[in-house]
Amino acid sequence: MIWDVLSLLVLVYWALPVALWSLYPVIPGLRASRETYLLIFIVSLMLQFLLKATRRLPVYHSLQLRPAGARDCNLFNRGGSYDGTIGMPSGHVLTTAFVLASLYFTGDVSGLPAAAGILSMCASRYYRRCHTLLQVVAGAVLGGVSAFLLHRALEEPEKQKL
């Protein structure tokens, strides 16, 4: 039950940048520009589309496959078998890591809550047997690196203005 709730938190993490963008005028103390929050959301959507596209490619290695006995772990869990489907990397973890790391880099979320959110999503996807440990770690690394690259790309124009 707790793992199901933690897995559903991906929707909250995914919607967080849109909420910050839309409520920007009424939330004091936000550190990034309003456009940055919208950009974080758009890039998280793009990452999901890229992830879906790569999962349609041929399987090159058994590490890409979900664990034996994997069941449907999506939001509307139909309970069907996911044996033999590609699970590399975990999309839930990738989205969570990207959004929380992006908000960490903007200064709106401190390190401990961001890390706790990412680790709890990793644990929920692993313990629900939706992904292997490697697939969960790969999602966290890709999400964190993508957030860092976006942060660096947004930071460069700021430095050039000075």
Describe this structure in words.
There is one protein chain. With 162 residues, the chain is mainly alpha-helical. It has one domain. 64% of the residues lie in helices and 0% in strands. The protein is built from five helices and no strands. It has helices at 2-22, 34-54, 91-106, 111-127, 133-161. Helix 2 packs antiparallel against helix 3. The longest helix is centred in the C-terminal third of the chain and has 29 residues, at 133-161.
Total beta strands: 0
Number of helices: 5
Radius of gyration: 17 Å
Termini separation (Å)?
A: 51 Å
Quick overview of this protein structure:
This protein has 162 residues and is mainly α.
Give a topology summary.
Blueprint: H1 2-22, H2 34-54, H3 91-106, H4 111-127, H5 133-161
Helix pairs in contact: 1-2, 1-3, 1-4, 2-3, 3-4, 3-5, 4-5
Question: What attributes characterize this protein structure?
Answer:
about 160 residues, mainly alpha, about 65% helix, PAP2/HPO, Phosphatidic acid phosphatase type 2/haloperoxidase domain-containing protein, transmembrane, transmembrane helix, PAP2/HPO_sf
